[in-house]
Amino acid sequence: MNLNMTxxxxxxxxxxYFATPVAYVFILMFLVLSGVFSFYLGHFxxxxxxxxxxxxxxxxxxxxxxxxxxxxxxxxxxxxxxxIELLMTLPIGHSNAVLGKFLAAWLFAGxxxxxxxxxxxxxxxxxxxDHGVILAGYIGSWLxxxxxxxxxxxxxxxxxxxxxxxxxTVVVCFLFMVSGVSMVLDTFSLAPQWVIDFVAGLxxxxxxxxxxxxxxxxxxxxxxxxxxxxxLYLTKTFLQRVQAN
Amino acid sequence: MIRVKNLSMKxxxxxxxxxxxxxVAEGEVLGFLGPNGAGKSTTMKIISGFLQxxxxxxxxxxxxxxxxxxxxxxxxxxxxxxxxxxxxxxxWAFLDFIAQVRGFSGDDKRQRLQAVIDQVQLQSxxxxxxxxxxxxxxxxxxLAQAIMHDPKVLILxxxxxxxxxxxxxxxxxxxxxxxxxxxxxxxxxxxxxVSAVCSRALxxxxxxxxxxxxxxxxxxxxxxxxxxxxxxxxxxxxxVKSLQGIANIESVEQLEERKYMLFPRGGQMLLxxxxxxxxxxxxxxxxxxxxxxxxEDVFRQVTTQExxxxxxxx
Lengths: 245, 314
What we know:
- Chain A has 245 residues and is an all-alpha fold.
- Chain A is built from 15 helices and no strands.
- Chain A has helices at residues 3-19, 22-41, 44-47, 53-56, 59-71, 73-81, 83-87, 94-114, 117-126, 131-158, 162-178, 182-187, 193-202, 204-212, 218-244.
- Chain A starts with a helix and ends with a helix.
- Chain B is α/β, with parallel strands linked by helices.
- Chain B is built from 11 helices and 14 strands.
- Chain B has helices at 40-47, 69-74, 91-101, 106-119, 135-147, 165-178, 191-197, 215-220, 239-243, 271-280, 295-303, and strands at residues 2-11, 14-24, 29-33, 55-60, 63-64, 76-79, 153-157, 183-188, 200-205, 208-213, 228-232, 249-256, 259-264, 285-290.
- In chain B, strands 6-7-8-3-9-10 form a 6-stranded mixed β-sheet, with helices on both faces. Chain B has a 4-stranded antiparallel β-sheet with strand order 2-1-4-5.
- Chains A and B meet through α1 and α7 of A and α2 and α3 of B.
């Protein structure tokens, strides 16, 4: 692992994100939708509570479509344009390339998330919220975004076509999201308890439920970091396989 | 020194490279020739560390590509086929990224970028997005990234493809000027390029090495080596028969009405005899041209089983 190389790859990828107006349109859409979700669907005002529960609760659903859009081009575009051959014959190494690209996507998501700060300002103006809880919510949300993006990075390696990568990511992320819902767990009703617990434990929704309320459990942090590491490792493995063919 | 030893590459049932072995020494410019799908690009991809060979070994300056790809990549500049580049970036931003990867920073980086940009003449498009560039410029951007760190080893896959004659000339001059105490491998299907820049040519087909020699020596294997193309002002009846009377002529072919190709026996020099003989005749000669030999002819001979077409222009 060479942090300098990782950082060079990351900066190039970030540069690419902002090279076209797509990034700005994307951020704008994200901000508008997160506002719409919290105010109309989450009844932010009507609740009359000085917290951002209404805002954070919709993040998993928002991310389900926004994060795959960020990650879909990470590798599939390189494969389509043939630049993967250039990238992988520069003395960068697989791990640095995979991590650098992922970090760029994660940072981009972080920028979009940070730009939602007016809602924090609003809630502080209207009431007296617990800022620690809100900060924990933001950190948890960003960690979850990382989980989505790591899955997206892996799906992006699997296809030359960005749209296919997008759809694959949505499907896999959806499965991870709903694995804790009783409807899904019922299908495992005959399985031993530890299987059910394991499947339920994979769920983004269950994990994020606590985070949205401001409880950033160390186990949740470990879960998301482990999830990111696993999917990035898979990205690297698939990348090597794709390169061989 | 690049050493390729018993290299094979199989994709499912298809064998792209079949037991290929060759060495390239410092100072050599190796031209890699072969029809499309012969395994040229695959071999270059293996040498550059992008693909892993099914079997065999490649070492570059004593380093194994298989075991130490990154170390090899540090001393190597590689231009992949089609010169891929990040199309949404400007030329400057792209080359800056390459310079950073190659370990340049600060003033060093600026100087190196400037030198490379001057060398491949990219000043006029520096702040243009790569996507909007013509094919020739994209290729030059690709070359610029390959030579950024003044590498010991240069692997260029079809470096002049898509360039106009002036640009081709320029790139060939550049390759020639770079090749001093470097190892350069270029693949091409433009045969004149091999004669123009390469000190050695390697012809492969179906992944197998067919010929490996100096381009001039390869040309000598052609039946056109030392052949004479003769054009007369007037139509002379029975000229073919008459020309066959010259000593050391193997055959005479009529190309056009007043145009003949005289093939020597065993590649011997015919010119003095032909001139002497023509002196004695009352024929008016419009043009006379001595052939060096045709690489294209040798290429076709070894890569196909087809008989060589009998009538070709001078």
